[in-house]
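Work Package 3 (structural annotation) set out to generate three-dimensional models for the target panel prioritized at the project kickoff. During this period the team completed the workflow that converts sequence records into discrete structure tokens, so that structures can be stored uniformly alongside our sequence database. As a representative example, we reproduce one entry of 857 residues exactly as it appears in the project archive.
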Amino acid sequence: MKRPWSTPGTWSWTLPVHRPWLVVLASLLLAGAALVLLSRLHASSVLESMFSGSNPTVQAYLDMQQSLESKDEIIIVAHDDSDSSTTTESETRLLSFALRLQDAIESSNSLLVSGSNLRYRNGYVPDIARYYEEVVVPNALHYLQPDDIDALLVQLTPDRIKAQIEQNERLVAAPGSASAIADQVLKDPLRIYEFLGQRLSDSGFRASEPWFSSDKRHLLIRITGSTPVSDMDYTRSFVNAIQEMAQRVNGDGLLLEYTGAYPIAELSERSIRSDMITSVFWTLALLFIVFLIGYRSCTEYVVAGLSIGMAILVAFGLFALLHSSLNPATAVAGAILAGLGVDYSVHVMSHVSHESANQNQEPRLGIPAALRKVAVPVAIAGTTTIIAFVAVSRSSVQALQEFSLLAAIGIACSVIAALILLPALLYLFRVVPFRLLPKRDSTTGLPRRLVRRISDAPGTTISACIVVWLFIIIAAWWMPGAGARGDQLSEMHPHPNPPLEIQKRIVELFSESDETLFVWIDSNKATDLLRSAWSVTAELERDNSKALGVVSTLSIASLLPDPSDPAYRLSRLPSFEVDRFIEEFEQALDQSIFNPDSYDQYVAFLRRLLTSSTPPDLGNLAQFPSIYRQLVGTDEEGAPIGTVVVADIGGDRPEMDELIPELDRRISQVPGATLTGISAIGQYVNEAVGSELFTLMAYALIIILAFLMIIFRSIGSVLLVLLPCLFTLPFVFGIMRLLGIEFNMINLIGVPLLIGIGIDDGIFVVSIALHGRRNAVGRDALLSRFRSVCHAMLVTTATTALAFGSLVFTSTPAIQSLGVVTAVGVLGCLASTIAVLLPILLLLHPAPEPRTTVEHS
């Protein structure tokens, strides 16, 4: 006997009831494979996982971080908060703690701290001092201006030499002459060192001072790690190990606060994992409440939960094949997909309920009949949502690209699960949805009342809705809005965030500058790194640089002379007779009380100083690796690939959104130079958000319009589908203004998502209206279908709004704002669909001929 579900061409609708165990087994195998793949995923909040390297500002920062020998750090701020301690006692306690911690790290056998270096004073001063002594001073004339060189040559004339030697004799012979004066005369009889010291930087000769705050009650301690911060296993263990050591040696009860790359990354990673658990928990809990209210039973929740749970699991497994890390956006995708994916299951259950109840069919026949009618609208709705995520993938922000990829995969898996796995589970476990239960009219309750009141006065409903809509929009834009919450990058980190707050306090306690910007010079674009560094430094230190807040700069230009500076050539030094000068100096010594043999080294220094015709270059600096690797980036073979110019910003300066474009304009004239740094990246994010908002909206609208035109083949039907979304967007923008929510790199995806998600209800309603028009369905039958889909829309909107609303329980402000924006938008789309689109469709529905009505009855 031929089975009723085995009609040719219907195998796809009958598969869930014909081979339910096969469907379930295949789903379990896919879920098992996904679990294995999930082991590859780890949480990450480092810069590489958040931004795309296609932007020059971001790429320059990444190149600088990867090529320079600037290791990630834990920064400890030790504070002596004892009121009874004097300043001297506080300094002693703080230094003693730093020394004890240094000894603990150096004597530890733990591999975690092997290779770590603790500094509480400038550890590079000895190398800089040696560099000045061996390179700068012997080649000092290449660092001087022509007038300075000529002034030095005047000091080396025979008369001046004789006068200086005679003055030295008087100093030494004076009663009570200190030995220090005699040593100085012996070391520098012509006062050349003194002359050069007044004109050259003496930073290499300053004593190494501890990093105390101005009140001497805070000490800054830096501890470098041996592994990049992107290795989260090492980061967690390293932070815990250092904190444990610090507490163990803190015998004076100092207040210890931790910041730096490692603590910030550790807190972010911990928060990402917590947000994943929190968002999923609240989504599941809220969905349970919605299903309990909507279906008066937990069975539908369990079946739909199994279906969507496997779909999300498979989606994360497929994502793990392409990426190995989760950023803050992708970490909460599970909760979002649960809310979006369950919508398709609700529509399937609603149609199964309607077909089985109205046609008096058993589930074996009712499920295939329902799938034949609901599959196309579900597929269309899922496709529009996928299109919205595809539009988001056009963003230049890597975090959004990864989020959109995961979400698109998740929606596709959810649609497949709703059309194949869910029907199999409904049939296999004999689940009878609430609306199939006997003695219950499928038209009772809120959906019936809504549709009845709208159908009684559709024109009045539309007019009232427009008036209310205008009132809300005007009020939202007229009332004063709340202030902005914070900067873009700060909102991407979890809050509260003690490490970030401590970093802000470090600026106030230990530095005159409150910002640090970098200029990265790429050797592939700059023909000469040293010349480019000098050009950038000159642009940053122009006459009005102080007005821009440039306090100081540091680069290879601070240590090497400008190769394009003609000072050496323009001076009288090339014509200076060195041998004659040396002879005159030695004659003056012979005629003095001093022993000429004691000045052999000094004579050698003078000869080298006056005959050095080749200025120092990068080759000389490379002989001092501790300095060179901090300023010059190298590849694996040691070849230079770029250099950095560090600019400290402070004082009375413009806002960063004014300062950064001006500095960027200045250095843009130097080939290969790119302004970068955290503040510059923040500026890029602000600009990207502003420019990409309308770009992503345009992408979503264009692609969705093209897709809907292919499906509906009528511009009128397409406009009707888009109507609820177009009504909702101004409302969402007004609410954001009232709440003080600014667009950031995360919540900006809410707009294209609303375009993709918000039209789902319109697709189902317009599809029913078109089906009724083609088949000359009577008004009562059409209202019955509207009541059925209205129940599904109420449930799906509640699940979607609550899924996004659950994001407010996360710790990242940017993700919280995404939840608020999208939840408000989804609710607005539902209200517009019911109060505007539905009455319009009722007004447009033609009255059927009497015969057709009877036949349908």
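Confidence is low (pLDDT under 50) at residues 1-10, 202-207, 434-443, 851-857.
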